[in-house]
Amino acid sequence: MTQKSQATKSRQIVLASRPEGVPTSSNFSMESVEIPPIEDGEFLVKNEWMSVDPYMRGRMKAGDSYVAPFQIDQPLEGGCVGRVVDSRNEKFPKGDYVLGNLGWREYWKSSGEGATVIDPNLAPLQAYLSVLGMTGMTAWVGLNTIAKLKPGSTIFVSAASGAVGSVVCQLAKAMDCKVIGSAGKPSKIDWLIDKAGIDACINYKESKDLAGDLTKHAPDGIDVYFDNVGGEHLEAALDAMNDFGCCVECGMISTYNATEPPVAPRNLFKVIAKRIRMEGFIVRDHLDAQAEFIADMAPLIKDKKIVWEETIADGLEKAPSAFIGLFDGDNLGKQLVRLG
Ligand code: NDP
């Protein structure tokens, strides 16, 4: 006879109120809940890592975007990696590690939907939330499927030292492209030049003329702009773009906390004048390419041709401040929260 499981106490973070402008700690609260015992076909996961991501800010707004909004007083969600600690599902045996989307909590139970068993020998567990996970795949899809990047091109990457940007930079360098980044701190710029090997980097917080600085580094113009930031960065990129160039619209973090419509870009007509292709994308529309992405990325990681950084906050209670810090540029590389 199978022994009946016990209920499990778990802490989780809920959305206490919708942020207006930049989120604050008062928008979040911690609560304790009891997870009922698992039934046949279910398994229980103890989270070890969770991801905080800029897109979560969009889900904190009331209106529908491309993902349903978070609900007030309900737990937040997001990428997580944990260990199966109890199981009545043979596909997810006790001891296996899984990738799921029920972060912001200590434990979750599932019958398997949206959960994937991962191989802890391929890369460190938390890499499945970054370079080998959603943000790495965003970089890979943006460059290969959207930009169709050609070797030898000149590319400008904003938020270049972040989780997506740092992988974009290195994948482009691996294709012999000239890479110009932008970042908000000297330490990030040093990392990009010394470790990621990019050609030049603009400190956008110190720049008085972003378009002018971009042209200084790319006197022959840019062919691709990988946009993580929007606003003034996009305006500068449109100014510096070559005819028939491409803007990969991945994210616009400079607008996520805006309470007024953004002023820039004021030069959208350049899309016509320069015959620019501007294409937005959402990584989860490309999940059928995941096996190809992993097959491409795993050897680059193994051979240390791609390096990456993690900024780690310890403890579930630190998740809100880690998330808020994304908008202050507190993270170098992928911002993670360690729960294990
Ligand atoms: P990052 O790791 O890049 O973290 C965010 C970084 O953005 C910060 O560290 C900060 O770096 C920079 N930043 C914050 N505010 C501003 C601002 N006002 N102006 C300029 N830079 C700013 O995050 P991710 O790599 O996870 O995400 C990068 C972008 O990609 C985001 O826009 C995100 O929404 C988008 N994204 C899109 C996906 C898709 O499917 N389309 C999937 C995943 C992410 P700094 O110190 O340089 O300012």
Annotation keywords:
340 residues; alpha/beta; Quinone Oxidoreductase, Chain A, domain 1; Rossmann fold; 2 domains; seven-stranded mixed sheet; six-stranded parallel sheet; binds NADPH dihydro-nicotinamide-adenine-dinucleotide phosphate
Helix content: 10-25%
> Averaging pLDDT over every residue, what do you get?
96
Are there runs of 5+ residues with pLDDT below 50, and where?
A: none
Query: What's the CATH first level of the largest domain?
Result: Alpha Beta
Q: Kindly give the count of domains.
A: 2
CATH architecture of the largest domain: Alpha-Beta Complex
The CATH homologous superfamily of the largest domain: Medium-chain alcohol dehydrogenases, catalytic domain
CATH topology of the largest domain: Quinone Oxidoreductase, Chain A, domain 1
Dominant shape: globular
- Largest sheet descriptor: 7 strands, mixed
Q: How many distinct beta strands? A: 15
Overall structural class, as computed from helix and strand content, comes to alpha/beta
Question: What is the terminal-to-terminal distance?
Answer: 31 Å
How large is the share of residues in beta strands?
25-35%
Count helical runs.
9
What's the helix-strand series? EEEHEEEEHEHEHEHEHEHEHEHE
Instruction: List the bound ligands.
Output: NADPH dihydro-nicotinamide-adenine-dinucleotide phosphate
Rounded to the nearest angstrom, the radius of gyration is 21 Å
